[in-house]
Amino acid sequence: METFHSVVNRGNRNLKGIYNTKSAGGWAPVESNRYQWLEVDLGERTEITAVATQGRYGSSDWVSSFLLMFSDTGRNWRQYRQEDSIGVFAGNSNADSVVQFKLQEPVFARFMRLLPLDWNPNGRIGLRLEAYGCPYKSDVASFDGSGCLLYSFSPKPTPNPAGKDILSLKFKTQLNSGTLIHVEGRHDRSLTLELHRGKLLLHLRKGSKSASPVPESHTAVSLGSLLDDQHWHHVAVERVSGHVNFTVDKHTEQILVPADISFGGVHCHGTPRVLSRRNFHGCFENLLWNNVNVIDLAKQHQQGNVTFTCAEPVSVPVTFAGAQSFLRLPGATHQQRDVGGDGVALGAISVDISLQFRTWNKAGLLLTFDLQQQAGSLWLFLSEARVRVQIHKAGRILVDIVTGFGLNDGQWHSVDLTARRERLTLTVDKDESLTAHASPSFPVASGNDLFFGGCPGSDNNQECRNPFNVFQGCMRHIQVHSDTVDLVKVQQMLIGNYSDLQIDICGIVDRCSPSHCEHGGRCSQSWSTFHCNCSSTGYSGATCHSSVYEQSCEAYKHKGNASGLYHIDVDGSGPIKPQLIYCNMTDQTWLVIQHNNTELTKLKASSGINRHLAYFNYSADAEQLRAIISQAEHCEQELVYDCRKSRLLNTPDGSPFTWWVGRSDEPQTYWGGAVPGSQQCGCGLQGNCIDSDHYCNCDADRKEWATDSGLLTHKENLPVRWVVVGDIQRPGSEAAYRVSPLRCHGDKNFWNAAFFNKETSYLHFPTFHGELSADISFLFKTTAPSGVFLENLGIKDFIRVELSSPTEVVFSFDVGNGPLDVRVETGGVALNDDRWHRVRAERNVKEASLRVDSFPGATQKAPADGHIHLQLNSQLFVGGTASRMRGFLGCIRSLQLNGRTLDLEERAKITPGVKSGCPGHCSSYGELCQNQGRCVERYNGFSCDCGLSAYAGPFCQREVSASFKLGTSVQYTFKEPYELNRNTSTQFQSSSIYSDLTLRGENISFSFRTTQSPALLLYVSSYYREYLAVLLNRNGRRQSDFKTPSVFRTNVRNLANGQLHRVSIRRLLETVSVQVTTAIPVQQNYESVTAQFTYSVIAQLTYFLPVQLTYSSGDLDPEIARLNSLGFSGCLSVVQFNSVAPLKAALLYPDTSPVIVTGPLAESTCGSSFPVNPYPAKTTHPLSDHSGTVGTGEPIVNAIKSDSALIGGMIAVLIFVILSALAIMARFLYRRKETFHSQEPRDIKPEVDSPEYPFHSEPTSQNVLSENQKEYFI
């Protein structure tokens, strides 16, 4: 292989074209391969702003892609990159056209090198080159690590008329640590610029001197990385008012500092507490302090060991960039004798190899060679960021030593490998503590070839085998037997051999500086990529961009969550941090933010104290509060002031005694219940103050206690941050104040929607700016098969999200690397079903992802070295495109871009073809309404109507429970239909049961917890003298008593055990089913047994309602009467009879429901430990055609004398014994009063195949008697 290159000396400062004549000119190497380059010497350092290329004149030779490199010395080249990632320039497509590239950042260099990568396949490399730029003048100073440059202002610095100070310079160095600049100013303030491990640190200190009375403070900021690469780096420190802008190369960080900071000089000494103890070793260029050229002044008054030329050390690095990279060098044995003082040979050195490397990878081969005399093969490699040496032979490891740690930190590390007779030594970083030894029993001597970084790709290569990862990184200072390898000669193919190497350049890139990991994600990297650790940040994704939390309590509620503490990330992927906030999930979802003093604070008159000042520190910071209040539909905060001879606001014309300060930091002179600027209290606005001459009760200045309280509801002033109480200094003055937590409800963003009813309609918004990270989330519903949700275009770049088919959503974009699509298929599930579906798309520098509902997401990786900036310039189109084609038909809701919600409703109000808002939420959220709750549509959202449920809460999921004491009872009376018609405004309505007094079936359910036995749990009766009773007998076994022609009883386990039990009794026609489900807390599971009974009906059961007896207790069954007199102590929960919830009516609507409560009754959580839907296993036991005798307290006896009946009875008993889980004793008693005459024919039976719900009753108005008032007793 031959390498050809050309060096052109070009001293013309105007930088006109090179080989740009129309003759058959241009550069054309003899061979066309990737080892060629064209180098231009500009004569001196020059500012280069652009380059242009053209093919060779009159030929078919041109370069279609190339790299650009620059250098000050003709050594240690630096590759020019666009966007910090793109290094390849697109060249020509013919020999005549000119392609010009304007450099994004000008380059200051003397030498320029162009390396062809691709060329015309039908020709060869041919090039004409032109560069553009300007002359460049600079002042430089060189430091050798022992000297310094001192500059002082005398007598003190002149104030900058612009009100700011600027310190700027360029530096270059080969050492990774050293102090660059130390500045001291007034008020014991100092500034230090320090290079530490290749990063530049800015230290700002206050009170750094030991004798200073100023308390010490220290601020340190780090910028840059790999700054020890012997290339120029620009640094600027700019003080403007209360902040400092710190810039390293193209990256700037802003630091808040006191406004009076001012620096007065640059000093060589007095730099305590910096990380580096070294002085700087390298060069400065153009050191300016407020436009004063410090180096130029220092030339006139030279101090210290400083020279004013930049002497650069010669160092030739080599980059191993790919899987095929390797370097082969000769490894002939070199013998050297160490001779002691007496002339005796101490040993023979058979291996002496050293090198320096830097990498981000934890593993990779550094060196391998075969040992002489076929003693095996030696591998020097990185493993888990440590250096390891192994000698293998015939598959066995003969030597294995390891040393060092954390060597993948991107810093230069040295490795020395020596073998002296029978001792093998491995040393890292010249540190004795990082030295490992081995004593092999065979000589260790290198063979003919040394392979660095990897092996040639030939499969039959017996000279080099690499069982490890290839090395990706840089090497330099390679020495073999104390001789430094001349890598320039290697590049010229005069020594050794290589493949896929970049010689005279270290191409390492720090992909974590600046870090693309957002929201505090921790960045780690390898040679080709980086990784973000998002743990404990509250964010997810490849760059920790997307929040894992919801943006409001409203969003948590509509995921079915109950009240509790939740992390709220109010701006999603925006900069505001998540905050733990309490969400009170009621009909209106309240977000509650606490502060440090919500209790009533009492004040008394104190001498010498004229005012009391209270500051309120909230659980959310100011930025979070501002965003929460802005997003909420309503916010409020209660102010309470209790007073006795302590005036509050005075009169509207006088100076207020008390005021408060809100978010705007302006004093507010109105109190709760009044309006801003009124200097009144709520009573003044309503005209009901105790003294009509004043506008606050406390302003009457009476000796009796008075109160002014009310809600502050103007969001612009909330929350209350300060309260100043003024009238407490007079004798006898007393006051107390209280500021409640901030409460907000509603989420303007969550329901913000627009309806697109024309394919050509769209909403337009300002350009979306998501250069490095862009996330888009929204909900949609449609019946259309396709349509574009949104689109934003640039000159070449674009971004688009669309429904491409009923089962596919596509996220398309182009950032300069060509169009890419991310697609999510729903597996045949149609998305045009007029239900809400959620779409989340994200694009960052690593990948693009798309999520649709809970379907499997899709991800598209970004190119490793591609364009990363998304550059858009058109308007953002929502619901359509700029071409008005493929528009979306349907609703889009809660559209957010990078955490910012677009106000679709406001824009829709002024846009034809688009309507504000979008109804129809129950189709998507209706399943959240549980336990017979009914979904009710609202303009913004929906609600659950729990009127027909025994449960309460926003989703009818909260158990309504009460703890009963002895003597407590609840009576519910069913009223007649005409009474209901006269009172239709009742809050608690159960219209079905009022009209359903002739029943085909019943559905009764409740839960209980007690340790009392015997006990009456529930009793139902009517004026027909018909009843049902559920009781526990003396053994704690449940017993159900009906008055029927038969009695059923089954022995079960004890239910009076303090655990929660769920009872369900259902009747349909002649069949009654009883189920008891028991929670077992220890095992966290449930036992359930169901028994089904069938009996004959003499007359249709119009009496089977839970009502209290209104006749004398003498008509009661004696056992029930006795249990009724004992009362019940325990818990009852979610009691329901068909669509009536009597316990809920008594607890929540006692004034508007037909209930009578005896004894103390209060809502409790005693029944909340039982799951709403435990899905119990059921066991059914049919008992039909019973003809046995009936006796009170006797079990049922089946008198059928058949084998099948006997076997069936044995099987039934066996089932109950095996399950051991039923606790039911059922006695069915039927008692019919002879004096009552029913108007219903007895031979009429209900229709079995009725389409009605089996437990819902049918109205028969002609059979309703005026006297059959029904009651329910618990």
UniProtKB/TrEMBL annotation:
In terms of PANTHER family, this protein maps to:
CONTACTIN-ASSOCIATED PROTEIN-LIKE 4, PIKACHURIN-LIKE PROTEIN
Q: Could you list the residue ranges that cross the membrane?
A: 1205-1230
Cellular component, GO annotation = membrane
Q: How does it sit in the membrane?
A: Single-pass type I membrane protein
Native species of this protein? Esox lucius
**Subcellular compartments:** Membrane
Q: Which UniProt keywords apply?
A: Disulfide bond, EGF-like domain, Membrane, Repeat, Signal, Transmembrane, Transmembrane helix
- Assigned protein family: Belongs to the neurexin family.
- InterPro entries (UniProt xref): ConA-like_dom_sf, EGF, FA58C, Fibrinogen-like_C, Fibrinogen_a/b/g_C_dom, Galactose-bd-like_sf, Laminin_G, Neurexin-related_CASP
The cysteines joined by S-S bonds are: 283-310, 891-918
Name of the protein: Contactin associated protein like 3
